[in-house]
Design a protein that fits this description.
- There is one protein chain.
- The protein is of the alpha+beta class and 222 residues long.
- The protein folds into two domains: 172 residues, Jelly Rolls, CATH 2.60.120; 41 residues, no CATH class.
- It is 32% helix and 32% strand.
- It contains five helices and 17 strands.
- The strands form four sheets. Strands 1, 2, 4, 5, 6, 10, 14 and 17 form an eight-stranded antiparallel β-sheet that branches. It has a five-stranded antiparallel β-sheet with strand order 3-7-15-12-13, with no helix packed on it. The protein has a two-stranded antiparallel ribbon with strand order 8-9.
- A hairpin with a 2-residue loop joins strand 12 and strand 13.
- The radius of gyration is 18 Å and the shape is globular.
- It binds nickel (II) ion (NI).
- The site of nickel (II) ion (NI) has 3 residues, from loops.
């Protein structure tokens, strides 16, 4: 499932993050690239600075945790530490799939997330292009909005030709590994939420709620 999550961060949070990022040192992104990705990766990433990263995570992690749509769509078991990437003119990231194992062997990447931090009017190019069964999807979102997509999808970042593209990236291991099952659960959950709000006491609502819960139990991996 490819899903856009609008306004994951609010403008004040974006301002604070970008201010903090201006204080950071950025290094060649190839340093963190897997073997296949390294030749096609041309970007910069925030250097490891525990104190600065802590301050960034203190803004971003609660926003993620409180976002219902993010939780429903990803069913997160584990969320990787964010990477902050910067693309300046001439930088791009060619077609690749993301690394399968993250956190030094601690978990599997099922879902990739790109959180856009720059105003799209402030740079040209820099679109995230994801290959799907229905053709290529080109994504360039407002600052503070995010897209999630299966980590197995082939994707690239188009060359930035003007300005600067800042993004925060993370990877999620889901309780439900199969993207098709996650999509079904997400759709069912939307209906369930609506019914629970509008007609909480009717038998259909209770039955659908139980079915969702038990389907999630059936498909979850711990
Ligand atoms: Ni990638």
């Amino acid at each position: 499932m490819l899903l856009t999550i609008p306004a994951l961060l609010n403008p004040a949070q974006i301002d604070k993050l970008t201010q903090l990022l201006q204080q950071g040192d950025f290094v060649d992104g190839k340093l963190s690239a897997g073997r296949a990705a390294s030749p096609v990766k041309q970007n910069e990433e925030l250097a490891q600075s525990p104190e600065l990263l802590q301050r960034l995570y203190r803004i971003i992690m609660p926003a993620l945790g409180h976002h219902a749509d993010f939780r429903r769509a990803t069913l997160p078991r584990q969320v990787a530490d964010f990477i902050f990437a910067r693309y300046q003119p001439g930088m791009r990231y060619g077609d690749h799939v993301d690394d399968p194992i993250m956190g030094g062997g601690k978990f599997r990447s099922d879902i990739s997330m790109t959180l856009f931090l720059s105003d799209p009017n402030d740079y040209e190019g820099g679109e995230l292009v994801i290959h799907t069964h229905f053709g290529e999807q080109t994504i360039k979102l407002d600052a503070g909005s995010a897209v999630i997509y299966p980590s197995s999808s082939l994707h690239r970042v188009a060359e930035v030709t003007r300005g600067e593209r800042l993004v925060a990236l993370t990877w999620i291991q889901s309780f439900v590994r199969d993207p098709q099952k996650r999509t079904l659960l997400y759709d069912l959950d939307q209906v369930r939420e609506t019914l629970l709000q509008q007609q909480p006491d009717i038998e259909h609502t209770k039955r659908l709620d139980r079915s969702y819960v038990n389907l999630l139990r059936m498909w979850s991996e711990i």
